[in-house]
Amino acid sequence: MIAHLAKRLGILAASLAVASMVIFVVVEIAPGDPASYMLGMNAQPDTVAALRAELGLDQPKLQRYLSWVAGMATGEFGTSYTYRAPVAQMVAERLQVSLPLALMALLLAMAIALPAGILAAARRGRAADAGVIAATQIGIAVPNFWFAMLLVLLFALKLRWLPAGGFAGWDDPLAGLKSLALPAIALALPQAAILARIMRSALIETLGEDYIRTARAKGLTRAQALRKHGLRNALIPVLTIMGLQFSFLLAGAIIIEQVFYLPGLGRLIFQAITQRDLIVVESVVMLLVFAVILVTFLTDIAYAAVDPRLRRR
């Protein structure tokens, strides 16, 4: 187990190193100069050069890359070019919105998907199965921002149960949860459709295993065999997708945050890109990549702890 853990840690470190280089190169080669953007098109060249020197943009790219990586390793993400504020502080403030939103969306997706997938597998070939398949096809095909607009029209404008946008803060927890309710539902529905499909497929495959047939031969009904023996094994691929979905929900809510005008990480990245705030884009994207790689690493370790066969790979 120790050798397996060391191997996975090495892969994690190598993945982070490669990701940091790719992110830095991609952001740096993007057109546009932050200093010119901040000063405007009519700025004098010497003024632009002075601002570039102040921001450290006149340094060699390798030196800037190494300084950025060293700062990230110590928790110092640098200072925003546009807001002149520490990037770490800006990320911490936006996480107060994005992290609860991702957790709410993931919990809602699980609450919808797991019962739907179990129902479809247990009623395979019947009306309930067809209904779940049709619903999941719609959930996968329809963009989440379209769901968001429908939810706003129904629950905010017509019924007036929930706010149409903005974030009320956590001074009043109930108001904060209400602010995130519609965005969380809009994010959860497509993810729930994917999870339900995977849950159904995994359960159907598990129900065809020999140990399920043995359990049925001992007198268990199909539902009992599914609940007592099939469900736990079928959850393995579902848990993998759930981990990846959490990373996606944390990072991929840019459009939803724009629709609901939420001050989260997605909106921060969008604003930083439009303002050519390179240090913010690099740091936030690297943080999100780290979250994805860490989730994958923890999933691998959990699998190895459960199934000793995986430790030999």
From TrEMBL:
Q: What is its main location?
A: membrane
Q: Which family does it belong to?
A: Belongs to the binding-protein-dependent transport system permease family.
Which residues belong to any copy of the ABC transmembrane type-1 domain?
95-299
What the entry lists under SUPFAM superfamilies is as follows:
MetI-like
Task: Tell me the protein's name.
Answer: Peptide ABC transporter
- Give GO cellular component annotations, separated by semicolons: plasma membrane
Which cellular compartments is it found in? Cell membrane
Which residue spans traverse the membrane?
9-30, 99-120, 132-157, 177-196, 234-256, 284-306
* InterPro entries linked to this entry: BPD_transp_1_N, MetI-like, MetI-like_sf
Species name for this entry? Salipiger pallidus
- Keyword Nucleotide-binding belongs to the record: no
Q: Name one GO molecular function term.
A: dipeptide transmembrane transporter activity
